[in-house]
Structure to design on (205 residues):
């Protein structure tokens, strides 16, 4: 489990492709990582498979390839990093599972002094009910607040501190990002749908 509060950005040092999938070697500033621990790379929960001096490796499965922006990665790509939270950690963002559901595309970026308003499109209709103004959304692993909704998308306002610490500062029109909708919203919508289905079944008896 993660919170969407990115610790720092890392740089992809090496990409290895094989029949099993993709392996990434990533440079980071983490003082130490443990083999087998979970780590979020641009919001994707992955497993540390190798640790070297200032670098670590993760493997990306074919299923993850389909749903995330990892196929756009190249050597030198900057990625957002967050280690899994501890039970004693402060909870600064929102519940983030690291299970990215789809990608979205940047429609436009508008600067407001040092802030940036970013609009995203391409949200699947099956997930539109998980989005609500002032609700939570995870973009490339960053916990943000939905500003307002647009057809098949939404807008967020990104503060200078977040722009400085994450790769959201690199976004431009046409950029693709990883999206994870709010877990609590999915639970509530799922329960409501199940309730309506049960009521409809009862009425049909």
């Amino acid at each position: 489990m993660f919170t969407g509060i990115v610790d720092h950005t890392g740089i992809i040092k090496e990409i290895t492709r094989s029949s099993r999938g993709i392996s990434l070697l990533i440079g980071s500033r983490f003082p130490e990582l443990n083999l087998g621990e979970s780590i979020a790379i641009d919001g994707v929960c992955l497993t540390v498979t190798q640790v070297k001096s200032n670098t670590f490796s993760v493997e990306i499965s074919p299923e993850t390839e389909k749903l995330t922006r990892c196929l756009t990665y190249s050597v030198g790509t900057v990625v957002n990093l967050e280690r899994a939270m501890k039970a004693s950690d402060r909870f600064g963002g929102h519940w983030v599972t690291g299970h990215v559901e789809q990608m979205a595309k940047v429609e436009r970026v508008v600067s407001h002094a040092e802030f940036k308003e970013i609009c995203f499109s391409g949200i699947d209709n099956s997930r539109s009910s998980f989005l609500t103004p002032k609700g939570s959304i995870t973009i490339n692993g960053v916990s943000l607040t939905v500003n307002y909704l647009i057809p098949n998308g939404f807008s967020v306002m990104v503060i200078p501190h977040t722009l400085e610490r994450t790769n959201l500062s690199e976004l431009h029109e046409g950029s693709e990002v990883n999206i994870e909708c709010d877990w609590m919203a999915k639970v509530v919508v799922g329960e409501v749908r199940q309730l309506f289905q049960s009521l409809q079944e009862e009425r049909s008896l």
